[in-house]
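From the shared-data thread, chain only:
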Amino acid sequence: MGKRGRELLVRVASAFVLIPLVLGILWLGGGWFLTLISVGVALLCIEWGLMASPNAGARLAAALTIAALAALFTGYLGHPVLSFLILLFGALCTGLYGYRLGAGWMDAAYGVLYVGFPAIVIMWLRESNNGLAWVMFAFLIAWASDSAAYVTGKLVGGPKLWRRFSPNKTWSGFAGGMIAGMMTAAALNDLTHLFKHNTSPLVVGVVVSLATMAGDLWESALKRRFGVKDAGSLIPGHGGLMDRVDGLMFAIVALGGIRLLVLLGTEI
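Structure, as tokens:
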């Protein structure tokens, strides 16, 4: 078995272990889900701190974690607007602390927003009406889109999507990811009946898939900025946790926007 075959085998084995665990905790919700998201936030903050400031990574990661978790817990207690205000204040304080540490203050402040914002949104989605279905849409569309893009890109190849920041991604992978996202959204809607119109899940699939791939490309640009190949080495075959959930973080925010439109009276 070649190097690529071994890498794919490790990726599949990791997914085989992690996906059922995550879905089980997602189904349980409540404190279990809060714990999962809190652990994820802490790990992402550690990875960001080490990337943004290798010399003061531990201290910066601690500041990032405190700020992001304070906002997350506030949202979980039923104060979503206040949680965003706390997140902004935490980003400001972390930026000032990063400046004092000699790290880039903008990188420090942005790290809080980058990690904390999707965490607040996903907790809000899970605790809202039909929360399990909403979060399942985000997770499964993101996973399907990301996996299909990877497999299609490897099998078909072709012109590169954004060679400067992500030389391995192709337009064929982009197309495969979009198709998989739409098919997954349509199948989920047949099970949950979350959206009223037949075309709505297809539109949702397109939007969430686009967000997923945008998040993947954005993280590639961030890693290029920090001069690292992977955000970490936590997950075998995937690198760090951020390498695994980069697209999901953007997908969550996109679906949160769709959920907000529904709450404001938009018929989807």
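The beta strands are 160-162, 166-170.
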